[in-house]
Hints:
- By secondary structure, this protein is an alpha/beta fold.
- It folds into two domains: 195 residues, 3-Layer(aba) Sandwich (Rossmann fold), CATH 3.40.50.170; 91 residues, Roll (Methionyl-tRNA Fmet Formyltransferase, Chain A, domain 2).
- 26% of the residues lie in helices and 24% in strands.
- A seven-stranded mixed β-sheet has the order 5-2-1-6-7-8-9, sandwiched between helices. Strands 10, 11, 12, 13, 14 and 15 form a six-stranded antiparallel β-sheet that branches.
- Strand 3 and strand 4 form a beta hairpin.
- It is elongated.
Amino acid sequence: MRIVFMGTPEFAVPSLTQLIDAGYDPVAVATGPDRPRGRGQEVTPTPVKAAAQEAGIERILQPEDVTDDAFAEAVAALEPDVIAVVAYKILPPSVFTAASEGAFNLHGSLLPKYRGAAPINHAIMQGETETGVTTFFLEPSVDTGDIILQKSMTIGPNETAGSVHDRMKVLGGEAVVETVEQIEAGTVDPRPQDDSQATPAPKIHDEDCEVPWGEPGEAVHNHVRGLSPYPGAWTMHGDTRLKLYRTRRAEGNGAPGEILSTDGRLVVACGQEAVEVVTIQQPGKQRLDAEDFLNGYALSEGERLGHA
């Protein structure tokens, strides 16, 4: 079976490696261009390209623009049976219709819930206790194609988006392999999505990350862990922006954003109840446990976080 694999970030790497381990060596991989990355801004390949090179895949496509006719022509020339897409750009039909047996995408939610660019973040921010992965056949409208298969996973009450991401990428690899196996065997039984059950999970912008202290403690806790470690929830202390990475629910009452305790623990009031801030960071500094942070940063009980 001639497979073209398309993906860019670390999330897509287990899908590629598990395909190879299952005996499905892609004839080509499409990924993002090499970019300056990291503190040194050294030009480096994407995680998927690095994994493909390590696996000995020679044909690697790195289009700047996936809507360029040249990319569609290059993919068609590969005569793929299947195109497997994991965390890649939105493809035009001129690309994905080149696959004779279908092109499918792996999405990080149980579709039709959480359609969009940030399904893991939004699921946690909404307090979901379960999520999963879905493979579906590509259609011109994003995240709407017929479902091939789904795999579920739990979300722990204190689990962060980073932790869910790292578990999900492995589960996603299993789903990609099973999907290819079903397509090869001709046993796929696709089912349409129920659009009436769809929920959005759009890209998260900086302003979306501000901690909503006026919400109940549970919602504040979900907000912080749903944005950890990236892009990171933030709040203001005067003119200083502080990033919060871990919290836990706590007892206490006060005005939203009011600091209730700084005695070894940083407890902040919410609209109802409170949260204890566990991991926090000030600009230009390392992330610290709250106790260490309080030893070097002046916060006092009764002060307010956020925009009072």
